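ok here's the first one, seq then struct tokens
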Amino acid sequence: MTAAGGLRLIVVDPGHFHAALVQREMIEGLSPRVSVHAPLGPELLDYLNRVTQFNLRPQDPTRWALDLQAGPDFIERLRREPPGGVVIFAGRSRRKIDLMEMAVETGLHVLCDKPAIIRREDLDRFAAVLATAEYRGLVVADMMSGRVSVMARLVRALVADADIFGEPVAGTPEEPGVMLGGVHHLFKTVSGIVNRRPPWYFDITEQGEGLADTGVHAVDRVHETLFPADALDYRADIEILTAKRWPTPITAMQFEQVSGGAPWPDYLRPWVSGGRLDYFCNGRVAYCVRGIHTRLDVLWEWEAAAGGDDTQSALFRGTRAQVELRQGESENYRAEIYVLPHANIENALTDKIAALQPEFPGINAARKGDAWHIDVPVALRLGHDPQFAAYARQFLGYVKDPASRPKRDVPNLIAKYHVTTEAVARSHAAGGSR
């Protein structure tokens, strides 16, 4: 549906703060008038508070006007939306597949917060939703905000340069060709607001485990970096080797602090023992993608160290150089890129940095011990929150012209969720679960 001033945005049951982050800025092509359908409760109030803060901030305030209908029939109201609008789902993960099916039947484009699905059993339904959407000229995508990160884009550019990186090293299970890690934190502040996590967030059958949730970003980064122009067939190109899971213990006091609710809801009691919740949010998967051994570690801790934040790491091994992203204590928890050469790459790296200047002005490569450090100016570093509006702009470009969407996007979405959901299933089969 095209409203005055652009496409109509429809927000359904915004149970995760990512829904509000799409509205952190005014976006060309979106109408400032937004439909919101949700049950009345603390999650809706949190969303309204965030959008209100965006509208009232002194610098570059937004101008969102919300047509709010709060009540238990919010899903049925979605069915009555005129076709052509863009709907956002950011909340309970298990039912997203039902909502996506309904939205596509209604004729709506879908921008779904990750994870789109959390169960292996839903992969075929997800593939069917994507096929139906493509047939009807609709766009269905997940919020891969990390794709617009300057650091991720630079890593992709370096790995794609054969004169610098060479060819990907296949590696072995013990020494993979690719390793990615991420550490997230349960208790943190986002856009100046304590990030409340509703009690259901800790239900792994509702929100999903670490590999099914934040693991989506890690798999996306691997595939986008190694095969930026290729469509992957998960049946032929991907082999899951091993997977494991383990919990982060949460005390009753911590649970109350982050959720605002008293422990423990009945649906969490299967994971409660000795006065603590075993939250199975940590996982590791080893798999091969087109023969390249890959290992992903997804970790959740309670709270970041002073001055710290969520962190990520990446290692891509090539025949001429190794490209790394580091964000540990030695980097003051700021993401930094290093290129560790196995050959003489100085001239190629110098040429590449010069060629990237129009896109990334001010970047520089400086020798640091045995490695080259890629210095990225602060002005280029887009933080976590602004990435959502940036990705939404890219998504809207596809909505306006569905033919402009790369043909590989749909098969790669299916391949990505095959890895995450199969990894969770394998980790359960490996034991260590309750």
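and now the second one, same deal
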Amino acid sequence: MRWGDAGGELLDSPAHHDELREEAARLVRFFADPPGPERFAWRRVDGEVDRSRPLELYSVARLTHCFSVESAAGGTAAAGARDGVGMLLDTFADVEAPGFIDGMSLNGHATSDRKAAYAHAFVVLAGSSAVVASVPRANELFDRAIDAIDRLFWDPEADAVVDVVGRDGRDVAPYRGQNANMHLAEAYIGAFEATGEAEWRRRARRIAQRFVEDAAPQRAWRVPEHYTSDWAVDDDYARDNPRDQFRPFGSLPGHGLEWARLVMHIGALDPQMDGAVDSARQLFARAVEDGWDQRRGGFVYTAGSDGVPIIRDRMHWTIAEALGAAAWLARATGEREYARWYARFWRYAQRFVFDPVGGSWWHELDERNRPAVRTWPGKPDLYHAYQAVHQARLTRPCGIALAARDQLMLPLAASAS
């Protein structure tokens, strides 16, 4: 895979790289206070802690990942990274069984009796990034998270994970899904970059081959979301609940964009993942055709198998993944088309998704690009937006934790020669 000039003024602009780093710092500041457990709590749109909601394992892990990257980059998030690793080990780790509790109240009581592969994938990612950033106790977290995946979720015959188990590790749901597996593939990439262990690279590749290279071409490069317990695609799943936060009905252009970036990352690490850039091109083209609103801008949340939009609201994470996919494709191909898409996505995000008054990004917009709360109340997430503003600065195809530690990001304008 080539990697170099993106063929576009914005992506190749040192001033834009400054802008991206400043946006990363702004995003982190939104979660800087208060210290302690409430730093990891659900945030309302004004940034205040919502004390009525429990701490979510996936959210704490994603914040810990971001704080670790920011710390590795020399930012001010070392305390957040250290506190996140400590919270995952001392509050969320199940003392009676493998793995971690999915939800905890602010006063330390479990709010869930099930364990989700989706959340545990982010604990692997958090542990990997913390190892790269040399956060205290990071290796302990990483080892426990990897062990939990193998003991609770991993199906070696399928080279994939089941979605939900009870605290005793028994499979309690017939559902299988690509979302948890997609994020585990990302986590395994991070694990490989943190440890050099080839098994994690192999697993990331096999997940991508199953859910993208084998499945998506059969459906015009739409990634199937839902599966039955015997791994058959379930096209009717969630038809009666199309706005579900994690398992909505239909296909998600945002996941096509996310996979576009991930398959290129895996392909850069594993020579057996040949054709990754071509797959990414197809995924990107399908997502843009199905999801991008040519008149108003923004990506719809979901579309049907015919590409007709189902939920027209826009989620912040979709435009974040669009930025990442466009940046990777631009640098991997040098083609101006992708650089132009990146610039278009960035202008849209600046105009509609950034909240310069309340902080962070609006998590949901309606089809007219006005803030909405039909699916996602508040602003609980840093992960997608924070990753998006780093992707364009990579000097080679790698994860942002490794890039932050090894200074593999394009220089700021002030230090550019």
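notes on #2: The chain has a mean pLDDT of 95. The first helix runs from residue 14 to 30.
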